Amino acid sequence: MTSFRPTKAQLAAAHGTTIPDLVAPGLRVLFCGINPGLYSGATGYHFARPGNRFWPALHAAGFTPRRLDPSEQHELPALGLGITNLVARATARADELTDAELREGGELLTQKIERYRPRCLAVVGITAYRSAFGRPKATIGLQSDSIAETAVWVLPNPSGLNAHWTPATLAQAFASLREKFYSE
């Protein structure tokens, strides 16, 4: 488990920082968060805040052989998985981002997809996806548009703030993606 617990001062100092992408050519699935939270900015790990349900959902859906701690994110590429973000800068809440930042992030993400060509891009956060790609009626699941032959799938935001999705329904949404693009 992640032993580093940032202090309030360290969290405040993380505002606006960035963390490196976990991306490589030939990935089966590239997960794309909205942007790093302050906890992730302070630790340097994606989806690091305790209570974020990304890592439990990844395991429950069958992507990983065990529940990984955010500090073990380096193990993902060997499993054909990667992580990036729509917007690189860390904020306390995703609603601090502007629509212009999300649209610019969508353009940068498209360039990243064209370069690395993962089999599937999985955006975690329907509202951010709609803003970034100008798809106001997009729904959870496989999208009709692809990017450079990469399929696009939208997943619910795994933040603990998204209580509408329970751990079980979140795991089911992740499992649907795995069954379509990972298990073949």
TrEMBL record:
It is an enzyme of class 3 (hydrolase). Its EC number is 3.2.2.28. It holds the Pfam family UDG. Gene3D superfamilies: Uracil-DNA glycosylase-like domain. One of its GO terms (biological process) is base-excision repair, AP site formation. Keywords: DNA damage, DNA repair, Glycosidase, Hydrolase. SMART domains: UDG, UreE_C. InterPro entries: MUG/TDG, Uracil-DNA_glycosylase-like, Uracil-DNA_glycosylase-like_sf. It comes from the Bacteria. CDD domains: UDG-F2_TDG_MUG. GO terms for molecular function: pyrimidine-specific mismatch base pair DNA N-glycosylase activity; uracil DNA N-glycosylase activity. Residues 20-178 form the Uracil-DNA glycosylase-like domain. NCBIfam families: PRK10201.1 (NF007570). This is G/U mismatch-specific DNA glycosylase. It comes from Amycolatopsis acidiphila.
